[in-house]
């Protein structure tokens, strides 16, 4: 059965088309567009007209590919920005008109469970796992071995932290300190709710993590095959984070692995990863290119 999953988060909208058989997936196509749906939502409580237009344009392209490839079932999940926005109904109406299905504005708990399912499929590292999905508006913390045992979603993400604290280019020491305090409080709350400090392996998901891992490996370009299941140390993450926070956006853009739509918020995402590693005591992170998209497809 050929299925399609769409994940619409605060920063990006992504598509996975896969053939499902025997409980596994074979990729047909993976797509990602930076649409910044959550731009300004932390401040205004609303999705802007411009953000809706950007998302609609990307979704039209995805709908055309879905129609062309003969999909049996489609599931679209929308996460942090569309949970928080007062005009989420406008977003749902737009999706229905373009895609023909309603988006599921899932809870943080469901987001965490889908992310865990996708992330640990095919993973050979030692359990139990702490899986962290660092998004634009929220970060999910999930622990478990063969299945989810504990999960919590916290309102820290690369877009939210950048908009809330990291205003200058590059951010000032005071701004970084404010972001650090905010993130640390949220991470400590999460680790009090889920036993992340007892995990044997930290698994990191989403673009902030994979970009940091690519930078730590000094890759000449973004290469998902070299990033998937790569392991980097806490010291390497701290170095990359310090470098990113000391750069201007233009300097970040000059790095060959950097997606143009991520350059202005990657410092906040890297800082979240660094603080999770520091507060959990875990000394390395394994990056996964498989995440909530894979979990959504498997759910079909």
TrEMBL record:
Q: Which GO terms describe its molecular function?
A: pyrophosphatase activity
Q: What CDD domains does the record point to? A: ASKHA_NBD_MtPPX2-like
Q: Does the keyword Hydrolase apply?
A: yes
List, alphabetically, the InterPro entries matched.
Answer: ATPase_NBD, GppA/Ppx_hydrolase, Ppx_GppA_N
Give residue ranges for domain Ppx/GppA phosphatase N-terminal: 17-295
Which Pfam families has this protein been placed in?
Ppx-GppA (PF02541)
Keywords assigned: Hydrolase
Q: What SUPFAM superfamilies would the database entry show?
A: Actin-like ATPase domain
Q: Which domain of life is it from?
A: Bacteria
- PANTHER family recorded for this chain? EXOPOLYPHOSPHATASE, EXOPOLYPHOSPHATASE 2
Designated name of the protein: Hydrolase
Species name? Paractinoplanes rishiriensis
């Amino acid at each position: 059965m050929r299925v399609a999953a769409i994940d619409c988060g605060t920063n990006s909208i992504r598509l996975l088309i896969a053939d499902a058989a025997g409980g596994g997936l074979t990729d047909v196509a993976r797509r990602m567009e930076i649409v910044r749906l959550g731009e300004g939502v932390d401040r205004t409580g609303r999705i802007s007209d411009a953000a809706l237009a950007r998302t609609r344009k990307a979704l039209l392209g995805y709908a055309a590919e879905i129609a062309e490839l003969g999909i049996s079932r489609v599931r679209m999940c929308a996460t942090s920005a569309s949970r928080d926005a007062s005009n989420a109904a406008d977003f749902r109406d737009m999706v229905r008109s373009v895609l023909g299905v309603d988006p599921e504005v899932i809870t943080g708990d469901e987001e965490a469970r889908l992310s865990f399912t996708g992330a640990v499929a095919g993973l050979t590292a030692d359990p139990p796992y702490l899986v962290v999905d660092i998004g634009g508006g929220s970060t999910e913390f999930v622990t478990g071995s063969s299945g989810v045992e504990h999960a919590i979603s916290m309102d820290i993400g690369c877009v939210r932290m950048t908009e809330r604290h990291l205003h200058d280019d590059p951010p000032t020491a005071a701004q970084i300190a404010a972001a650090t305090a905010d993130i640390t409080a949220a991470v400590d709350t999460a680790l009090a709710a889920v036993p992340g400090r007892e995990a044997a392996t930290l698994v990191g998901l989403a673009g902030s993590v994979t970009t940091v891992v690519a930078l730590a490996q000094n890759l000449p370009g973004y290469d998902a095959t070299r990033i998937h299941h790569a392991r980097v140390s806490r010291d390497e993450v701290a170095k990359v984070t310090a470098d990113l926070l000391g750069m201007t956006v233009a300097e970040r853009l000059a790095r060959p692995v950097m997606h143009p739509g991520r350059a202005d918020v990657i410092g906040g995402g890297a800082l979240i990863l660094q603080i999770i590693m520091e507060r959990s005591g875990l000394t390395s992170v394994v990056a996964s290119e498989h995440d909530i998209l894979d979990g959504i497809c498997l759910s079909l």
